[in-house]
Structure formats: structure tokens, C-alpha cells
Amino acid sequence: MTSVSQTSPPPLPPDAMPRHVAIVMDGNGRWAASKNLPRRDGHKAGSETARAVVTLAREWNIPCLTLYAFSTENWNRPKIEVAALMSLLERYLKTEIPELMRCGARLRMLGDRSRLRPSLRKAVDAAERKLAANTDLLLNIAFSYGARDEIVRAARAIARDMASGRLPPDKIDEATFSSRLDTAGLPDVDLVIRTGGEMRLSNFLLWQAAYAEYVSAPCFWPDFGREAFAAALKEYAGRARRFGGR
């Protein structure tokens, strides 16, 4: 695995750096298979890369980073793999607090927490509380997350407010809807990176990434290093972002 945790200069000037980078961490299983290792080893290696990328995002002054760790569709994977991923996240949340504190990172979990086991929900709540005062980097971990599910949950929240009379129908606009999403208050996504050479959205931040730039990195997630991250940022900087205006 290529280390990305060593201090290095930002690949872009500050005014060209995206405010919000979202990453689909794809390829852990294929990485493990290519090395004749069990899938759990691929997920473990992927968690190490996640730690290093968080550190690098802080060093490069990227204000907001979202990592897609476990989708609503991933619940359909074998139970033993799902349980291993739950344990991996729980261990990450308990062991990475000092490093996240050093990075000045605040944590927000995106997704449907109701499906998480009680010990994991407790670890999520504790980590969010401990890191709540940090302001240097907002780290979002999308776990048990699906954009369609998020949009449905937001629509239900709006429907409840309408039914109670708290929200008149003519007051519903994009800002109102955004405020009901898991990412309420965050900037829209500027750049989506997907590793593993895939080109799919995979039900990830469909509302928030409406005008994002997309970059597909050919390497598997455990091999995603400083050079690959910098290359994605440079490709982003070379795009003309018109937002439909011209």
C-alpha cells in the first residue's frame, strides 16, 4: 500500500482546492483477491488508507471529506462480511479518536443508524460527541447509507412537518429539502473520486453531487496514495465548472 500520511505540499493553490471531496472507496475485495488474501484483509488495508487520506485532507486544507464506507445495498452481502465491517468501523471509531483530534477533525455519520448494532451506535455517538468542537476538517463517514434512502427520509420529515402545520407547502424549496438531508449545513460536493476504475454513482450523494466533477482512479482503494489523490485534485482543477450557465 502506498503511504499518504507524510507531510507534502498541497497539489493546488488554496483558491483552486475543492471545499468538499467525496470518495467511493472501491476495490478492497478485489485488492485482497489479487493477493490471494481473505476479503477481511482487504477491508483492513482499506481502513488504513482511509486514516492516511483523512490526514492528508487536513494537511491540504480540504474543509470537508466524505468517505463512502457501507451502502444500503451492502446489507445484502454475506452476514460474516457484514459483521466484519461493523466490527472494523467500531474499532476505527474507538482507536482513531486521538488521531482525529490531532487533525482537528469533527465527525458526522451519514446514513440510517437504526440498522446498526447497539454497540456500534454507541461508538458513533461517543465519537461524534468527543470531536464535536473541532473545526479544521469535517469528516463524514457514509455507513448504512444510500442516497435514495436519504431522500425518502427527508421527504418523510417534510411530510410530517406539513401534516402538523409547521411547514406550508409553498415554503418548500431546495434549501428546505437540503436541510432535511443527512448533510444539512454542509457545502455541496465539488469532487467525487471513485477508486477501482469503476464509473458508477452507486447511490451516493445524488442530491449533493448534482454539479460535482467525477474522477475515476484506476487503483484499488488500499493502493490509493498521495500521487493518486493529487492527480484527482489536479484533474478537478483543470475542469471548467459552468453549472449550466454557459
Q: Which helices and strands appear, and what pairs or packs with what?
A:
Elements: E1 20-24, H1 28-34, H2 39-59, E2 64-71, H3 79-95, H4 97-102, E3 105-110, H5 118-130, E4 137-145, H6 147-163, H7 174-178, E5 191-194, E6 213-216, H8 226-237
Parallel strand pairs: 1-2, 1-5, 2-4, 3-4, 5-6
Helix pairs in contact: 1-2, 2-3, 3-5
Q: Would you kindly provide a written description of the structure presented here, covering whatever features stand out?
A:
The chain has 246 residues and is an alpha/beta fold. It has a single domain (18-147, 188-237), classed as Decaprenyl diphosphate synthase-like (Undecaprenyl pyrophosphate synthetase). It has helices at 28-34, 39-59, 79-95, 97-102, 118-130, 147-163, 174-178, 226-237; strands spanning 20-24, 64-71, 105-110, 137-145, 191-194, 213-216. Strand 3, helix 5 and strand 4 form a beta-alpha-beta unit. Helix 2 (39-59) packs parallel to helix 3 (79-95) and helix 3 packs parallel to helix 5. Mean pLDDT is 93; it is low at 1-5.
CATH architecture: 3-Layer(aba) Sandwich
- Characterize the main sheet: 6 strands, parallel
- Spell out the CATH superfamily: Decaprenyl diphosphate synthase-like
H-E string: EHHEHHEHEHHEEH
Number of strands: 6
Portion of residues within helices: 25-40%
Overall geometry comes to: globular
Radius of gyration: 18 Å
Class based on secondary structure composition and strand pairing: alpha/beta
Segments where pLDDT lies below 50 for 5+ residues? 1-5
Mean pLDDT: 93
Terminus-to-terminus distance = 42 Å
Number of helices: 8
Measured by DSSP, the beta-strand proportion falls in 5-15%
